[in-house]
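Fresh eyes needed here. Have a critical look at this protein's tokenised backbone.
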Amino acid sequence: MIRPLEGIRVIECAIFHAGPGASAIMGDLGAEIIKIEQPGSGDPIRFLKKIGKIPFGLPGGRNIFCEGANRNKKSVTVNLMTEKGQAIVHRLAKDADVFLTNFRRPALEKMNITYDVIRRINKNIIYTSVSAYGPKGPDSDQGGFDYQGQARSGVMYSMGEEGMPPLVCQFGILDQATAFNASHQIIAALLARERFGISQEIKISILGSSMNLIYFNILTSLVGGFNVPRHKRSEEHPMRNHYKCKDGKWFMMTLNPPNKNWESLCLALEHPEFINDPRFNTDEQKLENAEELVAIFDKIIAERTRAEWLEIFNRYDFFCCAVNTMEDLTEDPQILKNNYIVDFDHPDMGKIKIPGYPAYFSECEAGMVSAVPELGEHTEQVLLELGGYTSEEISTMKDEGVV
């Protein structure tokens, strides 16, 4: 089957994940991704063996983070600090559809790959720039990673319970949100080019993407005039809550509207005496007496395993599911049936499981095509086939340290 973005070519001059993750997603959809890397060193993400206490190392000198950020790509090594290296990228950009970077403005100017430069070479290019905090304002040239997105956007106060310090969510959540946001905007710009004949520059930031992720929390604060309270299990609505079962596993239920489902829930729990209990007659009373009712539910639910409860609740058509750990995901039949986790034949590790593409196309296919290339693996191929260079010219440029 065809892939939705077949025929689209992306030139990527970017490092780490918030930028490269966007082109990786486009590669899942069939775009050709040419990643420009520095000779000898490449994208710094290639050499991350651990971040903090989290190990990323894999056999063959690979690492997990790089595998996710740079799948589906061709690696071309070019020294962008040389005029000849810049000329190579300019030549490759001439026939590209998208130019993607997350370098900061001073670096782009030094490497001669700003929007104005690339636009003069290719008037049809969609130029995409990913930054930490956005293209305007006092911090527009400052750098930042996922943690800065979580911190500055308010995400760290959107997790955990009241009274807790701000919490960090592991790992790369906002980098991935930025990657999806960037890929979405690029595809929208490609559609606009097709419909209206316009090319343009797109500017995306980790901060903006992070804020969009918690859109309704921010909207509530702006329009409602109050901060959305952090979830506190013992005081949250008992029918919109999570509970621990006999086997130590948890489930989450959301029964809306609560009053409509109250009688059915009492029957499912085999405690019909609560149906007309004056403490819980109305939704307001259930919330007012939440701490008491959550404690009652805790005691009842601890009498059966999660599998037993899920089977019971399914008979009542309750919106309820397991609270999965990462290890649980490969045992969840719904996840597997929908290819949200799939098998992949890796060149070094053999058959492994990876996250699948999160959408289904009836007439196309999508998903990871190839693993991370070796540094500079496709340099000669791309320069010969796309750049129009001869083997002799490439050999000379290798001797000169250009590629």
Q: What stands out?
A: The longest helix spans residues 173-196. The mean pLDDT is 96.
